[in-house]
Amino acid sequence: SHNGKHVGFSWENLHTAPQAYVADVGFSLNQVSVQDVVQVSRLNAAAGARSWPAVSTRKWKSDDGTPVQGLLIHAAANSSHVAGAAPLLVFTHCGPAMASLSTFLGAGSVCARFPLATWAQRGYNVLLPNYRGSTGYGRAFRRGDLDGWGAGDYADVMGGFKAMAADGLADLNNSAHVGWSYGGYIGALALTKAASTHGIGLKAVVAGGLLSDLISQTGTTDISKIYQSSNSMRYYWDDATGELEANFRSRSAMYHVANAKAPTLMFHGQEDPRMPISQAFQLHYALQARNVTNRFLVFPGSGHILSLIHISEPTRLLSISYAVFCLKKKKKQKKR
Question: How many CB atoms lie within 10 A of CB 274?
């Protein structure tokens, strides 16, 4: 408030939809306290009446020993699969300077609002890794992907697959990857490299606003400067050693597309300035040429993050059905 005695804020958690609150602010001995909190909104009543999946924190080590943390949305218990390794979906958030947080499950994922809770309710474990470069883990972790896009962060995500399998919560040959923007970049890499680098046989990849080639992306995106600032202030054409260009090729899906096998669903906004639509077209064309099952949906008028009308139905419904169709759920064996 104008007199500094009142504050307004919103609050939510994994199982509680956001609501608005007001409170009194008290000051004493250089300390600030919030008192008499009052809820002033009554939105999302239907969401409050629903039962949401359980969520736990998971920790694992990346290939180089870096500690990584993520959230696991647990598969709902149902009669469609036996106890043990439910099919696994790994969602990689956008950014990289973002994070998957303990926010309301009913709102969907960060960025494209993928229906993470719906997948879990249908019997799939859903892992949300906060790879190096994510916010919320300190300056060193946030800067951990400098000079290393598609290297350490990719390994962090693949390590999540491996850790889940090691804990008996996943089958590396019955898993899928979902992501948007930088998550779509990691997804494209996983499509073309996961089997060779980490022994992960993906059954499906769902990617939106993706990046498939770091070289052609430089100079065509509206944030081309980041390809200098995140690589020791060099563009790849300024590096006389050729090391940076070699790294870009090693860490771009287009140069490994011969390894792609998993059915792939791609979304892209036609007017995307961040990840130009050519990034998706070239991957789509390569997959088509190699007879890899794929579907590519373009949304006219949308930019990097799809408009609300596009997010609400096609993205939600198609991503659910595609992943569910490609992943296998083990049937319970009848007792004899």
Answer: 18
**How confident is the model at residue 321, as a pLDDT?**
66
Omega into 96 within 30° of 0, i.e. cis? yes
Does residue 57 have a pLDDT over 50? yes
Q: In Å, how far are 11, 22, 40, 136, 240 from 36, measured between CA atoms?
A: 15, 8, 12, 29, 64
Longest dimension (CA), the chain: 74
- Pairing status of strand 88-92 against strand 55-61: unpaired
| 127, amino acid identity | L
CB 196 within 8 A of CB 209: no
Residue 20, class by beta-carbon neighbours within 10 Å (0-12 exposed, 13-18 middle, 19+ buried)?
Answer: middle
* pLDDT one-digit tens code per residue, 152-186: 999 999 999 999 999 999 999 999 999 999 999 99
pTM of the model: 0.90
242: alpha, beta or left, given left = phi > 0 and alpha = psi -120 to 50? left
